[in-house]
Amino acid sequence: MKIWIDITNAPHVRFFKDIIQYFKDQGEDLIITGRKFGDIHKLMNLYGHDFISVGKHGVSLIDKLKRSTERVNELADLVSSEKIDVALSKHSIELPRVSFGLGIPSLYVLDNEHAEAANKLTLPLCDRIISPRILDVWKLLSYGLDPNKLIRYNGTSETIHFKSFKYNENIFEDMGLNLPLSKTILMRPEPSLASYLDAECTQSVLTPIVDVLKAYANILVLPRFKQQAKIFEGIENVTLLEPPVDTSSIIKKSDLVIGAGGTMNRESAILQTPVISCYPGATLSVDQFYIDKNLMFRSNNVNEVVNTALSMLISNNLPKPLKFDDLFQLIVDNVYDMKK
């Protein structure tokens, strides 16, 4: 069986790493493509998975359109001569379009109902779509999704990130971090380059939060790109992390996570590290899933974030039992079923 997997964002590397390894172990023939964006290439090399680099990410709207169009052309040339049985992706813009055009069955993993442009370009073209149950189906239908193609599950896509996770309790020591204070906060800035968020690359909503909390805790910042890293350079008690790093162990070892994005916040909730979301866009349903379970606090008010952070740093909440559907098996089963 020949499977094509397209990876277009850094968190998707963690999402697919165990799926890729499983199909390899089963002797399946894989074609893995990944665009040049963020830390995709570094992470793929870290996990030891061979891949073909195709295209890159655009910044402005016109640039995004041109880069995506170029990438469709390149991917079409690459896969048209291959006898691919099933194509698999998570929020790839190009894979569903190429698969549809070439008559390749495609399985699409969806978890952002607010990515309007991406969803309109992809959902009507996919053969099957796997989505968290908490997502608003009516909103998805407005993008052209066929409800008969929708497969829903209890949980979020991040649950799959920890299938083979092994916690490194000595992660801070192994990284040689200088952490003079007793508490440590991991922070992740907003996805400023994403098409679904209107944000400024040279600013961050985390800046005023850092200005206060740096006196109470060591601050670890994991920026998304070099320009974003410059925002936090030279600040006392602030350490910039350079990918690739073992983010899962860092999250679990930290006393608190404050994130202006999404993936790392949800990973923190699953690992049950206290987490505050200050994502500057509309609340995502997948975030609301954990907010409803009291595993994530959300606010865009700086004073509220700071006060809640200080309270969380001294609390001793016990872990709560969590139950999710087996997303890994759901994906694997559907890939094989689509081959029939």
Automatic annotation (TrEMBL):
Gene3D superfamilies: Glycogen Phosphorylase B (3.40.50.2000)
Name of a matching Pfam family: DUF354
PANTHER family given in the database record: DUF354 DOMAIN-CONTAINING PROTEIN (PTHR39662:SF1), DUF354 DOMAIN-CONTAINING PROTEIN-RELATED (PTHR39662)
Protein's UniProt name: DUF354 domain-containing protein
Lineage of origin: Archaea, Methanobacteriati, Methanobacteriota, Methanomada group, Methanobacteria
